[in-house]
Amino acid sequence: MSTSTVKSLPRILANQARFQVRCLPSSRKTMAMMSPATKTRTEKREGDISDAFASLEGGVEIPLEPRFADLKKRLLAGREDVIVASWNRLLEHLRDQVATIQRHRSKLIPEISFSDVMKGKVGADFSAAYKKYGVCIIRGVVDEQTALEYKRSILEYVAKNPHTKAFPQHDPQVFELYWSEAQLRARSHPNVISAQCFLMSFWNASQRAEISLRHPIAYADRLRIRQPGDSSFALGPHMDGGSLERWEEGGYALAQTYDKIFEGKWEEYDPWNADKRVGAVIDLYGGVGNCSAFRTQQAWLSISNIKGGEGHLKVNPLHGFATAYILLRPFFESKRGAEDVSEDQYLSPENWRLELETSPKIQGASPGHGQSVHAKLHPHLQLQHTMVHVPAVAPGDYVAWHCDTIHAVDSVHNGSQDSSVLYIPACPLTETNANYLLRQRDCFLAGKPSPDFGGGEGESRHVDRPTVAQLSEWGGEQGLQSMGLKKWNSQEQGLRDGEKTVMKIANSVLGFPA
Predict the structure, then answer these.
(1) ∠ CA(380), CA(386), CA(389), 5° rounding?
(2) 403-419 burial: b if 16+ Cβ within 10 Å, else e
(3) What is the CATH number of domain 9-483?
(4) Which one of 115, 187, 303, 418 is CB 3.0 to 4.6 Å from 151, fit for a cystine?
């Protein structure tokens, strides 16, 4: 099949038609038409990365509708005393954890070499630290020259396509690219897929849970090439995966994700329980850039050298304790303000009580955005002490953090070279993710932005946009499966019952014969 320059959607479909006969279901042989299932979900409006985060939009917190006061009352009903006792225990525990983070900072974040992962040399210390703090680095997932070649290839792709959308448009730092050669090569690289499987192995799933943590799907996300001196990509502390959805009955509650926290038993909450994620709805509002697929881990592959203060990632190792705090915070108010007493007095459990009159406030949450986290709104997290830099990374290192981890980016890039990454999260195979993959497959073939992101023409007119045949060459069977272009093998040896079921469901969703 020709791999010559791709100049238009009709041409790429024509060039790919012969290959698609072999890799796609017979009922969808040319994929020249967008799937009917795709059309049932409205395409998101055109946008960029700033639309996903209130901190980048520069907006103020929007007052919520009165119905959220009723929601809070329902969550509290009949267990007020239990919630208060739980809150008080949590505040005491946070105080100790904050002190630990303040002492050790970045040293808490475990790291491991990819070669050790492949040899099975995973120490107990690494595993314990990763599960406790929710963040890790896998060194050398791809070699340095390969990673640097990814960046060179991206810059060449952008130069050939000056109409590429970016944020901010006048001085691009984050590119609205999803289908460049570098991104497709990296997502389908066998080492990256192996690293994702390793990361997902820290989750636990029951025998019948309809999820496979060993068969990641490719989630097409953006890339960043942030230049020295930039202050526009000032992404403040936040959690991905929606915001209001964490409280709403039609959101995470459908999977009982946070039930233990709302029952006043935060000590029993397991952030690594995959059963409690399957079926959750994490994007009720269709926000531009708000994720609707289930990503067990957020992650990126470094394509430059990056260290703290130079446009680097900051994370909050409080992990599950921070999640419990953010979820319980809307039910409480302070008796005396921070300006009236000392910090210790303000943060003391004795200074906090259930709201005298239940308000609709859910601090840092707004429809269609990620969960913002602020020092004033979430004072007990002491963000000035608990947001720590990830250790310095080199090209080819893979940094991953749990899907609920609070994270941010240096507000100013004070370094002397670019801070560049490819966003490549780990996503398990679930029915929700299979449905997402169906829509994403259409976007790939049409050169449109990935479904969770802003609509518009995307890369449909981009020169040298890769083909299905090239993806097959680079990623092989695993790469095609991860993109919904090849059938999953539900007869594979050693599968759990739930894995077999979800693979059959995914094959059906994607149009492959039983």
Answers:
(1) 160
(2) bbbbbbbbbbbebeebb
(3) 2.60.120.330
(4) 303
Q: Does the pLDDT value for residue 447 go beyond 60?
A: yes
Q: What is the dihedral of CA 28, 33, 35, 41, to 10 degrees?
A: 170
pLDDT at 49: 56
pLDDT tens track for 21-74: 334 443 333 232 233 333 345 665 565 555 555 554 444 567 999 999 999 999
Buried/exposed code over 272-286 (b: 16+ C-beta within 10 A; e: otherwise): bbbbbbbbbbbbbee
Any idea what the Cα angle at residue 221 is, between residues 421 and 474, rounded to 5°? 80
Q: pLDDT digit string (tens) for 370-384?
A: 999 999 999 999 999
Q: How many CA atoms lie within 13 A of 102 on its CB side?
A: 11
Inter-CA distances, 150 with 39, 141, 188, 311, Å = 33, 14, 13, 19
Q: Is residue 296 within 8 Å of residue 426, measured between CB atoms?
A: yes
Q: What is the DSSP letter of 108?
A: G
* Token reading at 475: 């990623």
* Cβ atoms of 462 and 157 closer than 8 Å: yes
**Burial letters 336-361, b for 16+ CB under 10 A, else e:** eeeeeeeeeebbbbebbeeeeebbeb
- pTM of the entire structure? 0.91
Question: Three-state SS for 348?
Answer: coil
Amino acid sitting at position 291: C
Report pLDDT digits (tens) over 62-99.
799 999 999 999 999 999 999 999 999 999 999 999 99
DSSP string, 360-416: S--TT--TTS-EE--TTTSGGG-HHHH-EEPPPB-TT-EEEEETT--EEE-SSB-SS
Distance CA 281, CA 477 (A): 30
Beta strand spans in 191-235 (E): 212-217, 223-226
Query: What's the token pair of residue 193?
Result: 């897929």
Beta carbons of 497 and 206 less than 8 angstroms apart: no
Q: What share of the chain is helix, strand, coil (3-state, %, to 5)?
A: 40, 15, 45
Dihedral sign of CA atoms 477, 481, 487, 491 in order: positive
- Following DSSP, what letter does each residue of 112-173 receive, concatenated? EEHHHHHHT---HHHHHHHHHH-EEEEETSS-HHHHHHHHHHHHHHHHH-TT--EESTTS-S
Q: What are phi and psi of 400, to 5 degrees?
A: -135, 145
Look up residue 368 and give its amino acid: G
Phi/psi of residue 166, each to 5°? -155, 170
